[in-house]
Every structure is written in C-alpha cells, then in structure tokens.
Amino acid sequence: MSLMNPKVIHEKVEERTIDELAKKTIEHCLKEGIETVWDRSEMQEPQCKWCSTGLSCSRCTMGPCRIIPERNRVRGVCGADADLIVARNLLDMLTTGAAAHSDHGREIAETLLLVGKGESSGYTIKDTEKLFAIAEEYNIPTDRAAIEVAHDLALAFLDEFGTIKGELELCRRAPDATYAIWEEAGILPRGIDREIVEAMHRVHMGVGAHYANMLLHGLRTALGDGWGGSMIGTEVSDILFGTPTPVESMMNLGVIKEDQVNITLHGHNPMLSEMIVEAAESEVMQALAKKNGATGINLIGLCCTGNELLMRRGIPMAGNHFNQELVIATGALDAMIVDYQCIFPSLPRTASCFHTKIISTSQKAKIPGSYYVEFSPENATEAAETIVMTAVENFKNRIPERIFIPGKPVAVTAGFSVEAITKALGGTLQPLVDAIASGKIRGAVGIVGCNNPKIKHDYGHVTLAKELIKHDILCVETGCAAVASGKAGLLTPDACFLAGDGLKGICKAVGIPPVLHMGSCVDCSRILVLLAALANTLGVGIHQLPVAGAAPEWYSQKAVSIGAYFVASGVYTVLGPMPNISGSPAVIDLLTNGLEGVVNAKFAVEPDPLKAAELIITHIEEKRKALGI
Ligand code: BF8
Fold it and tell me: What is this structure's pTM?
C-alpha cells in the first residue's frame, strides 16, 4: 500500500494518460504500490544526454566513447565523428526493427510451407482466393490443388529473404514511378535478409564511414521490411487465417469479465493466438471452465496480437502497449500468453502481485519468472490446449477482494483490409479517388506506432486523428495508434460527427468510420498496398499523392523501420518523439530536408499533435495543388 499523497496521485494520473479506464487503474496501481512503465520512466530521470542525442557509442571495446566538444572529445577512439556515431546508432535501430518484422514474416511463411507439405498441426488455408491471386503474381501455376499452390508460394516467399535475383518480387507492386525512384537512388532491396545483414556489416567499425551513405542503406533495409518481410507476414496471415472484413467488437480495460476465465493474448504473431482461440472455443475447455467455477472463457487481445484477432475474429481488446501492466492490475486476469515483441520483461514481476500466470511461448523470447510452454507449428494444437488448460485451472486462485474492473468497454468497428475497403466502396477504389479529386476528402494519413512515456498515453494519436478528420482527412491506422482511436470512440461509423462535412458525407454514404483500423504493425504493409493502388488509379507515383504518415507516440525499433519505408516510398512522415539523433545537425538535415531530393519525401518531428496536424494539412494541400486538384 502506497503512502503517496492523493493530490500527487491525481496529478500523476492526469499527466500519464487520456484513457479513462487506464486513469482509474493507474490510480489503483499508485495506491497499491504496483510499479508501471511510467514509474520506471520517472526513475530513469534524468536520462543520459549523450545517449539521447545519439552521441555515445559502445559498439567495441576500444570504447565506450562519447562526443563532448567542449572537452575536445570530437571523435571516438576509432576516429568516428558525431555524424557517423549518430548515423551508426540510427541504422542499428532501424535494422533491429526490420529484422523483428521480417523474422515474424518468415515464421508465418514457414508455417504456410508446413501446411503445403501437410505437416502442420491444425492450420489450414482460409483464403484460397488470395492464395491463388498472389500465386499468379509469382507466376506459380494455379490449376491444381490449393495445398500444392500453398507449398510453392511458401517457397517463393521464403526465397524473398535470401534471393539471388537481385530484387524482391513484391516490390513490383509499387507504382512504376516509385520503383524507378528506388532504382535511381540505388535503394531497391535485393533480398530481405541481405539488406539486414549488410546493414549490420556497415555498422561494424571500419566499414560505414559516411553518415549519408549509411542512412541511404537504411532506406533500402526498411523497404525490404515494408515491401518484403512485413508484407509477407500480412499476406500469409490472410491466406492462413482469413482476409479481414469489417467486424464489430469492444475495446479497453473494461473487456475483462469477472465471472469468466480471462486470458490475454499479447505479442505479435497470429500463429499462436489463432490456435489458442480454437482451443478455448472447444467444448472440452468450455466444460473445464465451468467445472472450475467460471461461466466461460473470455479471450482478450493486447497490442498487435490483439489487432490480428480483432480484425479476423472480432475478439475484444484490453488496449495497447501501455495497457499491458494495467490489465494485470485488474486482479481478474488468469493468464497472459505472450510470444514476442513489445512485451515488458517485467510482466512476471507485475503478475507476482496477483494470481496471474504469464506464459511465454517462443524460444526466442523466454522471460525469467514466466511459465514456459514452447509453441511451434508442429505442436500448435497440443501447446494451445496446455496453455488454455493452465489458464482455466488458475481461475480458482483469484483473490476476489483484489479484483478491480475499472468500467465498461466501448464499441469499435475494425477489419479494414484493402480488400474490405475496396468492397465497401463498391468493388473499386475509384469512389475514394473521386472523393479526393473533388475535395470532399482532402487526403489520407496513416497514423501508426506505439506508446511512449514521453507523450501522454494516447493523447498524441487521438488528438492528431481528431484534428485530421475535422479537416476532411481520412485516417487509416495500425498498431497501438489504431487501439488508441478505438478506446477514444473513433473507430465507429458514429464517430463521423467529428469529421468535416466532406468526409462525414462519404463515411455516412459508405457506412464506415472516419478512422479505419487496418490492423497490426506488420499490416502497415496494407497501407503501402492501398497507396500503390491509389497511385496506380491516378497514374502517378506514391510521392505525388495527397497523403502523409505519422507516428505520434512511437518508441520501438520497428517504428523506425516503418517510418523509413514510408518516407522511402514517397510518404512525408511526422514523428512525435525525437529520435536519438539531435547530436548531428547533418543527420537531422538529411532526414528532414536532404531525402526530398532522393525519394521526394522527408521526415518531420513534432511532439505536439495539433502542430503535427498543421504540418500534415499544409503538406496535403501542397500535394493537391501540384496534382491540380
Ligand atoms: O508492433 S505499435 S508498441 S505493439 S511496435 Fe509495439 Fe509499437 Fe504497439 Fe505492435 Ni508496433
């Protein structure tokens, strides 16, 4: 129990989040002395100024080094100057993100291969139409059984990781003008893994020595993620688990049910979570839940796994990145099942305050203090049953007086794949293009990314989205940005009353929300496909479209890769938190000016979402003018 002054608690709550149920739960945590991400962030203050400006390097044992000009330390021991150290750190960060997305994509493609070989446990092909359509893109014969096509398509996808053809097949999806820009700039990815490996090579001491040369390779690595690893992750997930269509569900911490076994699915790869759903829905598990005193099993999504399940199954979500500890603090969570990425390593510590079991499942991401059930496509059904059973049997260990469910959930509509958007528009994107051309919709913005204690939780996402739709700009969202909008009530057709008259009219006519949930972070590749389709309909490059990207609360390496492939694809992108690059004016200038001359797009940094909206609106109007619309 905390002795913190109630006034201090109130101030902390108000400065930490705009999510109303999170506020109540943070207050509960502060009173109970349950540590959260915000507490740890405060404990880290003041953060190292060399690290936060990118001016420290600890890559080799001649160092660590810091650049401190006032003490005449202008180069590291190896001779690297501030520009190189900053660029090396940034390339490392971006490459980590590209690797994370792409490794996820590879695992899904390997699962498709097992399905093609008839060796997987419980997986099938749910979207044969998509399987055949993509197979045709790869010139794979489709006049045979789906399973045979799946086998060959899986091999073609896996080939993209280490191809020796010199280019990725999926990059051909880009408009000709965009593809030509990549060729001209020398940033066409030659293979997903190849660019990641080369980036790490360039980061080694004595290889990359020119900051701009290093960072241009970063764009190539990121393109291999967006148009490669992530796109494969999305496409194969659709083939195996179904292409999302609009679906209604609920969101926020209020989705927890007191009388049911609550199981949260947290992480990223739908391979695991889809099998958990199958297991939880089985009669055996439902009966076991009842035998243990529950009325049923309540599956709840978090972060990108949550987005995947919401999009395809309508499973409710407890929230985004910064809701992961709070959902444990409800005291009613019987198990949290995790795979990888964005999972706080301290979760077992949080769970130790309650009866909650954290169950890790990936040999890549074992977590001290968690239970471990190894999960693979070969043992999927069996592992999923073991996990669900563990959760169900934990129900009886709850401490009723510690249960704290902070309120009721809000309604959301999700599931806007490109296919679903096209269908909603009557089978073609032409009505959207016409609405943009007529000015009813001024443009579109992809709002993506995370939560970060440097920005009030959800404030950046929600404020930006509200401001943009007010100015008749359609928002398409993924990841934790989409979840922030969901909790704030923006993901329902009713939210169109917040939009300007033009966007409101279109949304009402089509029956869609003004903010479209397009999925998880790998599903930023859906945004690329949408942009390519819009640009092809207009006969222009992506860089000519009245569109922009934004990551108002980003924190992760994956978000750096996403931002970089947006910009490399021609999309002006505004970041909320400043990357750790302010120690190099040359790197800042390259990213916020110089790239315009290379890929016709650039970054901006603006933590204030209202000012970010101004930047984006100005950019969109300039693009409209250039197109003559
Ligand atoms: O991949 S938006 S906090 S959960 S990194 Fe992570 Fe960021 Fe959320 Fe999904 Ni994406």
Answer: 0.98
